[in-house]
Amino acid sequence: MSREEKMMKKRAAILGAAVKTYSENGFAETTISAIAREAGVSFGSVFTYFATKEVLFEAAILEPLEEIKPYFSEIEERYSGNPMEMVRNMIDCQLDVFARNKDFLRLSQQVLARPDRYPVLFAELSAFVDVFAERIYPVIERGQKEGCFYEVSPVLMAQSYISLLNGLRLTFIDDHTNLIWSNMKIQALRLFGPVTEGWES
Fold first, then answer.
1. How far apart are CA 28 and CA 18, in angstroms?
2. What are phi and psi of 50, to 5 degrees?
3. Taking the CA of residue 100 as centre, how many other CA atoms within 13 Å lie in the half-sphere pointing to its CB?
4. In 3D, which of 165, 157, 195 has the Cα closest to residue 181?
5. Which region holds residue 81: left if phi is over 0, alpha if psi is between -120 and 50, else beta?
6. 3-state class (DSSP) for residue 31
């Protein structure tokens, strides 16, 4: 392993430890020492990669968010089939992404709950939601024209789905709720249109 690869691996370990520790204890209660212990690195090593505690916190939000974004912004490119199939594939993928990123989801809730404390990060998370809503609207409209989605406002339908995702972030982030995550996929699909026979298998 090259020196650059080792440095990248150490940085990733620190960032992962920061996401976990910040999500469990909050920004104020988390120390750099605790993050270093979780990452298995020295105290000074943290500052080799992140200049301050605040910079590390921002990275703990923004970098995982960048990894998640394509699953929510590349709707037409990533999910195939007719509108109902696209939405089902989207839901399967997005809920799986959420289930795998419980620490980040817990951490993002801290930001969403305190827009006054984290205005820049709050704006990033809000923009992420806005982009998703913009990308899903055309799929909803096509599904309505084809008769497989409910005839309600596409804006309302998209916002209802986003609200469900936000509720999942708050409620089902434990390791013991994998079955609930799976069952919630059907509930999410029902927000768009009737679940026909065979879709629940």
1. 13
2. -135, 120
3. 9
4. 165
5. left
6. coil
Distances (CA, A) of 22 to 30, 43, 58, 77, 109: 6, 16, 11, 34, 11
Query: How high is the pLDDT of residue 184?
Result: 84
pLDDT per position as a tens digit, 179-200: 566 778 888 999 998 755 444 5
Helix (H), strand (E) counts: the chain: 10, 0
Q: Tokens at residue 33, please?
A: 């020492």
Of 188, 55, 47, 175, residue with least CA distance to 106: 175
- The lowest-confidence range among 8-22, 25-39, 122-136, 165-179 is 165-179
Rounded Cα gap, residues 57 and 60, in angstroms: 5
